[in-house]
Specification:
The complex is a heterotrimer of chains A (118), B (233) and C (83).
Chain A (H helix, E strand, L loop, with lengths): L1 H21 L3 H23 L18 H4 L3 H32 L13
Chain B lengths: L1 H23 L8 H14 L4 H9 L1 H21 L5 H7 L6 H23 L8 H18 L7 H25 L23 H24 L6
Helix pairs in contact in B: 2-3, 3-4, 4-9, 6-7, 6-9, 7-9, 8-9
Chain C lengths: L1 H23 L3 H21 L3 H25 L7
Helix pairs in contact in C: 1-2, 2-3
Amino acid sequence: MEYVALATGLLLVLTGLWGIASQRNIFRIIIGFSVFDTGLHVVLVSIAYLRGRTAPILDEAVSKGQAVNRIVDPVPQALVLTAIVIGVAITALMLTFALKLYEKRKTLEIESFEDLKW
Amino acid sequence: MVKKIFALIALAGIAFMLWGLFKSYRHQETLPRTSRYYAQKGPDELGSANLVTSVVVTYRGLDTLGEVTILFSVASIIGFFLKSRTQRELKAEGFRETSELLHTSTAFLVPIIFLFGAYVFVGGHLSPGGGFQGGAIIASGTLLLFLATPTASRGKTIISLVESVSGVAYVGIGIAGIFLAAGFLDNRILPTGRFGTIFSAGAIPVIYSLIGLKVGAELSAILYKLKDAKEDE
Amino acid sequence: MIYFWVLTIVICAVMLGSAIMALYHKSLAVTVIAAGLVSLLASILYLILAAPDVAMTEAAIGSGLSTVMFFYVLRRMRGGENG
């Protein structure tokens, strides 16, 4: 199961990168980034998974003593938790810049922004 | 066309590297050393039943502080770039009057959504949930308010007040850890209590509630600024 | 167990399909919805992979708030969508 999830995550990363590299519209590039982001999260969570184990939360089903042998890895999950929030913040920032660019030029075609080309 | 070919070559290189990663992955039977420490010692040391929470709030608390800082700077940068329209400009733009149904259901639902968000972050050390999830739920409630009354611009002061107060209190509790317990952001400044009850795990519920309020306020502020952005000529 | 296998494979297939759709569909509104669908299905996948905390965050933030953010910006860009 975790192999399927890992492969899907890596394929999502590739899809997002292809979108970032090949699209011309800035809005579509940002959507590609968002797909790329989700793919990275899937990769990290599927690496944290251990077969036949349960979520890292102790209750009646999993007591303190059994925890080491019954739970999946909590550290990558904590990492992904913060990564999701940072991802949405970065997306908001990119959308703001895209909005400002659109107001200046009335277009989102990336080929029309060539101030730094010579 | 040439650019696409270059992009394809670069992508093929990355795909090759990722394939190597996938091929070398073997599923593990035991936890790595750090995680084993957290699983063995975590519940007794910190008293939190949810191990993800204990990692996020205490063991890697500094990361979370940095993450909240990033959210804060993103919200300020967006506020710097996007000027909000005034209430008069919003009215002049002529929003269609929202329906009776939306108004009534908003008045009924928003308090419940806020209450659920608070429940999610207060119980973050016992069950799945915590500051980030609860904050996002609170931001969804604010979003419903924005949808029901698009011309109102009241909540702004409340949002910035909640944001700054919870941020200062979070850092204050972190500094209190230096003097009263083992170090910065240590949760044992309060008694750890009985394992598995709501008043346990020391300062973890307090810190996570503050994070929840902070994240909810930041996300609401970002949504607010994107909603009211003014076109400048 | 076999049930979880089938669910995982179906979810992964739909995720990849909607990721392709998020890049190549003509209408920008549909691409935003497809990107939100990728996030939503990812949150179910996290639940299967024993990560309920991450699943809650992804469902609330990834598929809820960020989709709305995209739509708020899209509303301001009328006329720029063909490009």
